[in-house]
Amino acid sequence: MLGSTVLEVAIGLTFCYGTVALIVSTLQEALAAAFRLRANTLLAGVKSMLNDSRFDGLARAVYQHPLVNPHADGTQPSERDMRTRPSYIEPAHFAIALVDSLWKVPGDFAQLGNAIETIPDPQVRQVMLGLYGRARDLQQFQDMLAGWFDNAMARMSGAYKRRQLLISLLLALLLAILFNIDSIHLFRTLWQQPALAAHLHDAPGALDPAVFDALMALPIGWTRFPPVANADFALQVAGWIVTASTALFGAPFWFDLMQRVVRMRSTGTRPEETPLALRVEGRIAATPVP
Question: Which residues are listed as membrane-spanning (predicted)?
């Protein structure tokens, strides 16, 4: 009995956490698309890499190249006027665009060093001269530039992921507060009433009415607002924080975990059937039949 109760509570919690994580992921993707977070982060990374914070030097020349930004006409005078921004740049295309911005008229590879010497920023000039001095030909130099770009974007990608984790945590916390998804209260209720979670194991893992109907059967939502600031409210805040933290694992993690728990529940030992002679109108008789 105890094992069955634990599994039922686990199913209810994982279903709730998976649904919250799925909603948070959907909202996060919508915000990223609306505010062009990936494109803006990529642009900031290129500007930082080329030390072109005002976007009037190499970064602007690279973004005006058709291989990097094929939807632009190459005449944008400033960053604010650039309506289309790529969300991804192929490293090889970045290398070609950077070389083309320096080497207006391609010729002998030995002459490319003179073009690099004209770069006003000393740090970028030093980096490119170092790569140029180690390259045997133009192709190897472009491969080195692509590797430099890859390393810079890897660091920028790490910063972007950390920012997205923070956004996910804030969205999940906001969702937990709005709908009062208190993990501590949820656990207590499911533990005392395991039948409440028994019908959740067949709930689909998608945003459809069946999910929300099952979710509304859980002990969430406000019964009194605003809450009273006492010891119970402090415990409620802790429950919100726990709920928000679970969204960081992602919806696939929780729904996969729920499927595993459901399989464990379905493979449990089957109870012995009560003989028909011991049943009276669907109930077990109080005394055995002689």
Answer: 6-27, 165-187, 233-255
Residue 251, domain extent: 2-33+167-266
Q: H-type helices in the chain, by residue range?
A: 2-34, 37-49, 58-63, 91-102, 112-117, 122-134, 138-178, 183-192, 195-198, 209-216, 231-246, 251-266
Q: Can you state the angle between helices 2-34 and 183-192, rounded to 10 degrees?
A: 150
Give helix 138-178 / helix 91-102 axis angle, nearest 10°: 120
> Whole-model pTM?
0.74
Question: Who has greater pLDDT, 32 or 1?
Answer: 32
Domain final residue, candidates 150, 165, 180: 165
Taking alpha carbons only, the member of 112, 172, 183, 105 closest to residue 141 is 112
Is 289 a member of any domain? no
Among residues 15, 26, 10, the alpha carbon closest in space to that of 167 is found at: 26
Residues 6+ apart with CB under 8 A from 176: 20, 182, 239, 240, 243, 244
Confidence of residue 276 (pLDDT cuts 50, 70, 90): very low
pLDDT digits 0-9 by tens, 39-68: 999 999 999 999 999 998 999 999 999 999
CA-wise closest residue to 115 among 107, 51, 137: 107
Asked if the model's pLDDT at residue 216 lies above 60, the reply is no
- With residue 279 as reference, give the H or E element that holds it: strand 279-280
